[in-house]
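Regression check, coenzyme A case 157:
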Amino acid sequence: MLGASPSTLAMTEITLREVTKDNLRAVLRLSVTEDQRQFVAPNPVSLSQAYVSLDAWPRAIYADDQPVGFVMLSLEPEKPEYWVWRFMIGADHQRNGHGRGAMHAVVEHVRTLPGATELKLSFVPAANSPQPFYESLGFELTGEEEEGEKVMRLALG
Ligand SMILES: CC(C)(COP(=O)(O)OP(=O)(O)OC[C@H]1O[C@@H](n2cnc3c(N)ncnc32)[C@H](O)[C@@H]1OP(=O)(O)O)[C@@H](O)C(=O)NCCC(=O)NCCS
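Current build output:
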């Protein structure tokens, strides 16, 4: 139930691009607000984890030709199990519809993967958590908890 895109998206194209030597510094510089730091690891930490994790799928989120965020999926087609491991839009770029556009792109990608019937994620249940953002995209709480985080799922119908 990924809803209609906001009007800003009509003019802005959101794409997920590989992190390369050309955009690495821009991705490393992107950060969330101080209040939001409890919800997502810093991008340098995520990219270090990606370096040693075979199932990590790290991508820069672009609004047209500008890097505005970062997403890292965990892809395990052999199970099959697909998770949003990290997801952030830089503080200066939030509330412009980029998060919604990026999650649309993530869902489109995961839909193409073997045996994909759902996309899962977990979040830290604290004030101003991203729960309303994910709910607005159709994710639902599963009732499960993983290491103190609440799990949500989106059925890929
Ligand atoms: C969550 C996050 C990715 C959203 O990105 P964004 O680009 O600001 O989101 P969008 O502009 O696409 O928002 C789409 C809709 O989601 C909802 N939404 C977005 N951020 C929200 C928030 N902080 N609280 C409540 N609702 C929110 C709103 O309904 C919004 O529509 P509106 O702007 O018309 O009201 C961004 O706030 C972020 O990076 N947060 C910190 C890191 C984080 O929590 N990551 C998730 C880890 S599990």
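Comparison notes: The radius of gyration is 15 Å. The helical segments are 7-11, 24-29, 43-52, 98-111, 131-136. No diff flagged against the previous build.
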